[in-house]
């Protein structure tokens, strides 16, 4: 819970029920890999124990940028993925709470998909793993749970059912495309299943670019409305352009994971995404892999009128480039306005590179379709 303007104490559901906008944080795994604290391929969060100062610093940057929620750095932290999962969970919770208290933010305990699900499809085994994680989280000071980065709704439902038994609010975000989850379950049906399992907040995270994710959440909203169900909507998309909109997501792109820089969204892309999300009725808006602190600041700045304030990081940023009015060069000063940045078509500086690629999963489908039966 946090204190907001002397009005009282607010949890995640109280804030959303009041119609307020919640700004989420950004991506940790890719950011910490680039900074030298996470190993690509494993993508596990040992840094919470081995290099707590690195995780703490990234938390602080997101908080300063305007995040109202800090997620524990517990991605891929189930015991079937990481042997020291319990120790990492404890450390990650302490780090998130320490920084959250510096700005009265909430802490979300996060669980993600398990290797066990793909191997066994055993509900009992998968739920036992989630139960162990939940028990570790409940020993610490967290405000609510987020089930994230799950590409099979069945597994997400099992996770929600377990986390809901804690008595705390539960959000659930799938990494799916507008075509649905990995088993072809449409987004609308995915949302219905999650809410019926007990999820208070539903949406998508990671996998695809912001505007594609907005499309997916709109489909989830439509499904809930048709079923006569209600839930808060949440979105934390990928911070890279993925116009291919492939079923398998960005991990199927040839640039993944070490050459994604040319696809990074700009802060101005974030403004457009946030307005689209807000207009769609989404009130929990953040980012996932590729979203850096300046992207989160852009979320807070775009919604400053609705939120009634700007984040501390905006003290060093003129809205829509206003700070450029002080530049010595007149052609740079001419860029100190919204129209310029909203209408810019940024160049990549790579004349021999294509604007789009053939994702690996699509390429494999093409190969199979060309194989004589």
Automatic annotation (TrEMBL):
SUPFAM superfamilies: Homocysteine S-methyltransferase (SSF82282). Its cofactor is Zn(2+). Residues 10-303 form the Hcy-binding domain. This is Betaine--homocysteine S-methyltransferase 1-like. Pathway: Amino-acid biosynthesis; L-methionine biosynthesis via de novo pathway; L-methionine from L-homocysteine (BhmT route): step 1/1. Keywords: Metal-binding, Methyltransferase, Transferase, Zinc. Zn(2+) binds at residues 206, 288-289. Residues 352-373 are annotated as: Disordered. Gene3D superfamilies: Homocysteine-binding-like domain. Pfam families: S-methyl_trans (PF02574). Homotetramer. It comes from Seriola lalandi dorsalis. Signal peptide: none annotated. PROSITE patterns: HCY (PS50970).
